[in-house]
Amino acid sequence: MPRHFFRSVGALAFLVAVAVPASVTTQSSVSPKPAARAKWAPPRAADGQPDLQGVWTNATITPFERPPELAGKPFLNEAEALEIEKQTATERAAADRGTRPGDVGNYNQFWFDNGTKVVSTRQTSLVVEPADGRVPVKAEAEAIRDFNAVHNGDSYEYMSRWDRCITRGVPGSMFPAGYNNAYQIIQTPGYVVILYEMIHDTRVIPLDGRPHVGPNIRLWMGDSRGRWDGDTLVVDTTNFTDKGWIASHAAAGRIKGIPQSDALHVVERFTPVNPDTIQYEVTIEDQKMYSRPWKVAIPLTRDSKYQIYEYACHEGNYAVPNILSGARVLEQGPHP
Question: Do residues 246 and 289 make contact, with C-beta atoms less than 8 angstroms apart?
């Protein structure tokens, strides 16, 4: 089965699974208060900085953007979260039992790894700023997204950079998808390295205070520079190419396919909050694509038993030639 199809149906299952039950109220909820505990200090790496090393995952059924009907509700209460998780499990089990008339079928849930729970903070979307949980996309950015979607079969140039096995970009590589939601962090003196399971990108982040590269150098994943702010790793990334997308997976909903410009500026914060959790936050600013900066927050959970396997993207990637050849057949019109 083409890898492109696998991602598409997995993302569709994700979107269906996070539909909010009718029983969930839409009034604003108070953020869950953490239980009182003694102040926790993260372990230290060889250079004395907080040790973030390990394998971390972020699979979740929390939607990327907040559903419009929950615009004034930033958090779920415990009962609401449990109800959504229960409904998700029920819908997935039903999807495995059969297909609709005319549906060619789908992989069963064994092949997906898009989580079973909402994020531990119980926020109603991964987007936390603006306050309504919606990305402030400009109309012109949506027009480019829509044009590429219509012309997807015309040329590989209109396709996702993920479909083409180039990259999921920054910060797109940190946004959870239908599977392969693991990240390995490695620290050496002067550097932090992040290995992304999906598309096996490796990002090397220097911490020595060097300036960004010159403005004429433009990179798919940008030019990253890190520093420590107390126990928080802050990563500032600039010098992006204007060829990428901010998100390339269907779980991002309407944000999939929104282009990035060379003005994109990304600031990430990795804050260890307990032995098994890093709070990841990213602020995205691109004045050519958005009316204001916006922010995503996702807890990363340690999983010491998780095994990262090679994501051989180019090998067996029949999606691109199949999409293009299929479009050429359709252009010929009906066949006898």
Answer: yes
Long-range Cβ pairs for the range 319-323 (8 Å, 24+): 319/2, 319/3, 319/4, 319/5, 319/163, 320/4, 320/156, 320/159, 320/163, 320/164, 322/2, 322/4, 323/4, 323/152, 323/153, 323/159
pLDDT of residue 26: 45
The pLDDT score that the predictor gives to residue 281 is 98
Distance CA 25, CA 137 (A): 27
Q: What is the value of pTM for the model shown?
A: 0.86
Give the pLDDT band (50/70/90) at residue 2.
very low
Q: Where are the alpha helices (DSSP H) in the chain?
A: 3-17, 78-97, 139-150, 319-331
pLDDT digits (tens, 9 = 90+) for 117-130: 999 999 999 999 99
Question: DSSP letters of 150-195?
Answer: HTTTT-GGGS-TTTTTS---TTGGGS--SS--EEEEEEETTEEEEE
CA angle 319, 324, 327 (to 5 degrees): 120
Q: What is the band of 33 on the pLDDT scale with cuts at 50, 70, 90? A: low
In sequence order, the β-bridge partners of residue 275 are none
Q: Which residues pair with 183 in a beta bridge?
A: 56, 196
C-alpha–C-alpha distance, residues 133 and 129, integer Å:
6
Pick the CATH number of 52-69+124-331 from 1.10.20.140, 2.40.128.20, 2.40.420.20, 3.40.50.300: 2.40.128.20
CA distance 80 to 25: 8
With beta carbons less than 8 A apart as the criterion, state whether 57 and 183 touch: yes
Residue pair 238/222 in contact (Cβ under 8 Å)? The answer is yes
Q: Is 200 left (phi over 0), alpha (psi -120 to 50) or beta?
A: left
Token readout for 118 is 């909402």
SS3 83: helix
| Nearest of 206, 204, 194 to residue 278 by alpha carbon | 194
Of the chain, the end-to-end C-alpha distance in Å amounts to 27
